[in-house]
Write a structure and sequence with these properties.
The protein is mainly α and about 425 residues long. Helix content is about 75%, strand content about 0%. Helix 1 runs antiparallel to helix 2, helix 8 packs parallel to helix 12 and helix 13 crosses helix 14. The protein is globular, with a radius of gyration of 20 Å. This is MFS transporter. Keywords: Cell membrane, Membrane, Transmembrane, Transmembrane helix, Transport.
Amino acid sequence: MALPVAALRSLRHRNYRLWAVADFVSVAGTWAQVLGVNWLILTITGSATSVGVSLVLQALPTLLLGLWGGSLADRLPSRPVVLAAQAAQAALAATLALITTGGLPPMAAVYGIMVASGLVNAVTAPTLGRFGGEVVPPEDLPNAMALGSVISSGARILGMSLAGAFLPLTGVRGLFLFNTLSFFAVIAAVLGMNRGELHVLERAEGSTDLGVRGSVRYVLRTPWLLVLLALAFVLGSLGRNYQVTMAAMSAGPLRAGASGYGLLSTVFAVGTVSGGIAVASRHRLSVRLLLGAAMLASVTQMASGLMPGLMSFAALMLPIAASAIVLDTAVAARAQLDSPDHMRGRVIAVLGVVSAASGALGGPLLGLMSDTLGPRAALQLAGLATVAATALAAVAFARLSGVRSAAAVLERLRPRPAEIAVPELAGQRAS
């Protein structure tokens, strides 16, 4: 599936071209390190639960400090914060490479770096999101978001593919060194941008506390957004933590080892590209489609637990990953594009907190289920829970709209054209 020429219009802007290239390199490095860290922890501990714990430690700072990070993003100039964030994350990735030089490091050291990376991400991720919206004029922002999703998904494929190929050759240290270098691509791109062509967003005035309360009030005043966030939380925790379940399936029932884990991760990334291209090519995105995709992902997840071999399991990763992009699109586009400039950082922070919370709960829960019940049972039970959550979300939409027909409410909740875009992934990395 190819993107239409009109979908490439953001590439007319030099600043966005620099940002897009840097994002591609940086995200590839990030996902190479994700695979490396997960495999390192499994090698040290032999436990999928330990992988889930690492996700909690990295997500916990966002849960505690994410809203304050969003408030700071709406008050501080974006460019210097972006540069500082990339330098800090590069130093942490280099530290991971250093401690693995002499063999397997102590788990306390690995967990400590995960916490430090999470702290940097909590404080600076909303600013990265704001800056990603400043490299194009407002009229091209939805298109830049769409391209950012496709670029990031493609980078994920590259990162996972390189990791799968080089993990048996270089070990995890090589993956961590690659990620270290990838952060400098973003630094070089930001330094090379024409500052006069940046479309700087309006910054907020007032205290940090008021900023945090304002973001909470904004979400609480939008009931349908609460339903979407709740659905995203359940699907994100029980249906999207495939770093845990793919590793557990590969090391366990599928007996595929590191190379199989790399293959599964690459196939999953291919699915995200397919979903991103499909969404970027659409002019409208209905809630009916959103809920249909959520149901498809849930049912397919249940079925994946029954697959006997690596290839059949990998085949089901495609629809799961593609449908996940649809959910991200509806939540992020409606929340970001309908918010005023001075609220943008705080809205991004709320989305980040929801994502972090889903990882913090789902990672260890799926790991524990995989260790105690087996990976297959974990996939089936989690899929059943997400099926129920999707059905409840449809009922909630119907009640909010005051109609009895679920089909009618889904049509009435069809978003306006300005509200349709792919989540802004450019510059918002999971490190």
